[in-house]
Design goal:
alpha/beta, Protein-Tyrosine Phosphatase, Chain A, five-stranded mixed β-sheet, globular
């Protein structure tokens, strides 16, 4: 079954060992970017260097539309036969926004709130980066539905670091 796995950086090695993904997305600040893990195909590793901010003026490297465009193009090349792992530093904000983007793209328009609520059930700690989601909403032509779905999620359970969370592409 096709699935996404979101994990913090601290859980990446275990996620790669136990889930054997074909594709990997890393979302870290440029100062903390990691190289492609040993034994992983560099063509299947997307590195998106950005700070975790929701206000573009708050950092030197805010999330931008180019990051979302690259994420969408990369995820569309993933055939789903093996998992896609998405991670950021804590597995709470950038990676959850990216997983939300991929799920919305794969499952189609009109399901944004359903996807957000399923994300909340599976990951009470999820706090998708609103700037990334705003760029994704625009890129996918969702007319604000992805942004509105974040409100439907309600507040997250506050944690310093998330836990590895699986999102199946079927049966959310």
């Amino acid at each position: 079954m096709s699935q996404l796995l979101v994990t913090p950086l601290s859980g990446l090695a275990e996620a790669l060992d136990s889930h054997r993904p074909s594709h990997l997305v890393t979302l870290l600040s440029p100062l903390h970017m990691i190289p492609t893990p040993d034994g992983f195909d560099p063509d299947h590793h997307l590195q998106l260097a950005m700070d975790d901010v929701s206000d573009p003026a708050a950092a030197d490297f805010p999330p931008g539309r180019v990051h979302i465009d690259r994420l969408i193009a990369f995820s569309r090349r993933w055939d789903g036969t093996a998992p896609l792992v998405i991670h950021c530093w804590a597995g709470i904000s950038r990676s959850m926004a990216s997983a939300f983007t991929v799920l919305c793209d794969r499952l189609g328009p009109g399901r944004e709130t359903e996807i957000a609520l399923a994300m909340r059930r599976r990951a009470p700690h999820a706090n998708p980066n609103p700037l990334l989601v705003r760029h994704a909403d625009d890129a996918l032509g969702r007319g604000g539905r992805m942004v509105a779905a974040l409100s439907a999620m309600g507040p997250p359970v506050m944690m310093a670091e998330g836990v590895a969370t699986v999102f199946p592409l079927a049966g959310l």
